[in-house]
Specification:
Length: about 240
């Protein structure tokens, strides 16, 4: 996507009205150093973790004292440079977090299995899965895009998350897990404080305190379909309740 178009699209997304306050930077309620958001003893796996938002998410989990942060990507040199940088951040923050790097293709089931198998060999199970890697394209008509290019989007944005989620959830079905998550918001989203929005579509710019006690929270509690993907008014061939 053209950089100017991408910036315009993201700026439009920022114009949210779900909470009176909209954030563009870290604020106290989602600070990774809050004791209530501690990730102590947790293993975090982040796809696309070598740069950009993925790197910021990794850094915040380091600051939140995760026991291990594993970053996955295609470019080994980028992953290694990020891991070295975050090791320094951990030392400066007094965190004992250990960094792990995995070069691999998340659309490949064998690559994903190799990552989880290696973690298991180290007696580590992933507690928080951050599926940050995605493919974003221009707003091209489907027939102009073509099947071959379309399939690369499906592989990255549909197939890969399914492969990751399947292996993640099979580690230990009885263990509570947290997944899909930028930066400090991702740490908050993986905490018990955020349980009321797990499995719903959320936006990092929303103020979590206003959100937790405002009319949006009321709608979440009253409507099981609120902020979830679906077809409104439709339930297996029949009209949904209330429609």
């Amino acid at each position: 996507m053209d950089p100017s178009k991408m910036k315009a699209a993201f700026m439009e997304l920022m114009e949210t009205d779900f909470t009176p306050t909209v954030h563009t930077s870290v604020y106290p309620a989602i600070s990774p150093t809050r004791p209530e958001l501690s990730q102590s003893g947790r293993v975090v796996l982040i796809t696309g973790g070598g740069s950009g938002v993925g790197k910021a998410i990794a850094e915040n989990f380091v600051l939140a004292s995760a026991s291990h942060v594993a970053i996955v990507g295609r470019r080994l040199e980028v992953l290694q440079a990020t891991a070295a940088e975050l090791k320094n951040s951990a030392a400066a923050a007094g965190s004992s977090c250990e960094m792990l790097t995995y070069q691999g293709d998340i659309t490949s089931k064998s690559d994903v299995n190799s990552i989880f198998d290696d973690l298991a060999s180290k007696r580590l199970a992933v507690d928080v899965l951050v599926m940050n890697a995605a493919k974003i394209g221009d707003f091209t008509p489907l027939m102009e895009l073509g099947m071959d290019e379309l399939w690369t989007f499906i592989e990255t944005n549909v197939k890969a998350p399914m492969i990751l989620a399947e292996r993640f959830l099979k580690q230990n079905p009885k263990k509570k897990k947290a997944s899909d998550l930028p930066g400090a918001f991702a740490v908050w989203a993986a905490s018990e404080e955020a349980a009321f929005v797990h499995n719903r579509i959320v936006w990092a710019a929303w103020d979590v305190e206003e959100w937790a006690r405002g009319d949006v929270r009321k709608l979440i509690e009253e409507d099981d379909n609120y902020l979830r993907i679906g077809v409104g008014g439709f339930a297996l061939g029949k009209r949904a309740k209330g429609h």
